[in-house]
Design a protein that fits this description.
Elements (H helix, E strand, L loop, with lengths): L1 E5 L3 E10 L7 E10 L5 E3 L8 H18 L16 E5 L2 E5 L14 E5 L14
Antiparallel strand pairs: 1-2, 2-3, 3-4, 5-6, 6-7
Length: about 130
């Protein structure tokens, strides 16, 4: 388990799970949790980070589309759709959007992780998210 952010209000942690299932390489999975007010323990979904979930969703999808366009040969898609169940964590001023193995890129890419500056989202972030 890795703690990415713990500022007393928000706790963002991740667990990467590897399992060798008989193939040449292990399979990887991950779970990410961002919890509002660690004392009460309310887990947040990606879209709950924003005062306007539709604006947050749109900005993230546009950002990732731009990142994919920089190296299109690295991905099996040209764009992505994010939702409340999309994996994410907060770390050192960034929102990391993570995709499962082989979901948008070849297996050899591991877990694609897009690092978006929280400062680019500050106008629509809920007040508890540091930016």
């Amino acid at each position: 388990m890795h703690t990415y952010l713990n500022n007393g209000t928000l706790l963002s942690v991740g667990v990467v799970i590897s399992a060798l299932t008989g193939g040449e390489h292990p399979n990887h999975d991950a779970k990410y949790y961002t919890i509002l007010n660690a004392a009460k323990g309310k887990q947040l979904t990606l879209l709950q980070l924003f005062t306007s979930s539709s604006k947050g969703k749109s900005q993230i999808e546009t950002f990732i589309k731009g990142e994919i366009a920089k190296t299109p040969g690295d991905y099996s898609v040209k764009s992505v759709t994010v939702s409340s169940s999309t994996w994410f964590y907060l770390y050192k001023g960034y929102l990391h959007i993570v995709f499962p193995e082989s979901s948008i890129a070849p297996y050899s890419s591991g877990l694609p992780d897009f690092k978006m500056p929280l400062s680019s989202l500050k106008s629509i972030l809920i007040k508890e998210v540091p930016h």
